[in-house]
């Protein structure tokens, strides 16, 4: 909301813009020190260039058992669809993408769109359904995760394998 963006701007010295400006705004003038309050589905492709990582948690209501299960046709999926449309066109795509959602996301039309788009854009993916309780956290909430790394990203240093995950 506007108040949160304003407070963040004051605390961290970032420029705050309450809406999308003209297309010229994106021609080399936007930077990491800016906050934009606008709907992702309204942004031009250039707005998504150069990020190191995207973390995505699309609204889960289109996929839950208790909802209408409208999937990708639900209006709340607009931002997700917009990102999937822009990703293959980017000159400098993110190095990594992490997606989180409900387990029912797997097998959905949105999931298929994610798989096809990531593959087309040159990403290698791993998918999991994990529950925090299995890793010692006092919370049982199964979630779907997709970790994607772009083929052009520098190889990361070896990490520690999480117990219970395939190697």
From TrEMBL:
* Record bears the keyword Transit peptide: no
Q: Name one GO biological process term.
A: methylation
InterPro entries this protein is in? C5-MTase, C5_MeTfrase, SAM-dependent_MTases_sf
Q: Which SUPFAM superfamilies match?
A: S-adenosyl-L-methionine-dependent methyltransferases
> Which Gene3D superfamilies does the entry mention?
Vaccinia Virus protein VP39
Gene Ontology MF term list: methyltransferase activity
PROSITE patterns membership: SAM_MT_C5 (PS51679)
- Pfam families (UniProt xref): DNA_methylase (PF00145)
Keyword list (alphabetical) reads: Methyltransferase, S-adenosyl-L-methionine, Transferase
Q: Which residues form the active site?
A: 60
Q: Which family does it belong to?
A: Belongs to the class I-like SAM-binding methyltransferase superfamily. C5-methyltransferase family.
User: Which named protein is this?
Assistant: DNA (cytosine-5-)-methyltransferase
């Amino acid at each position: 909301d506007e108040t949160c963006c304003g407070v963040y701007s004051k605390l961290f010295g970032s420029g705050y813009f309450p809406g999308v400006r003209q297309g010229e705004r994106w021609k080399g003038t936007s930077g990491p020190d800016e906050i934009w309050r606008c709907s992702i589905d309204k942004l031009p492709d250039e707005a998504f260039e150069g990020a190191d990582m995207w973390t995505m948690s699309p609204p889960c209501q289109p996929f839950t058992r208790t909802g209408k299960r409208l999937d990708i046709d639900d209006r709340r999926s607009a931002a997700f669809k917009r990102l999937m449309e822009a990703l293959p066109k980017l000159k400098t795509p993110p190095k990594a993408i992490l997606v989180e959602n409900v387990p029912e996301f797997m097998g959905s039309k949105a999931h298929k769109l994610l798989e096809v788009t990531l593959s087309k854009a040159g990403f290698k993916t791993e998918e999991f359904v994990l529950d925090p309780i299995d890793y010692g956290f006092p919370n049982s909430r199964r979630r779907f995760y997709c970790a994607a790394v772009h083929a052009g990203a520098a190889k990361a240093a070896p990490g520690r394998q999480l117990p219970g995950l395939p190697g």
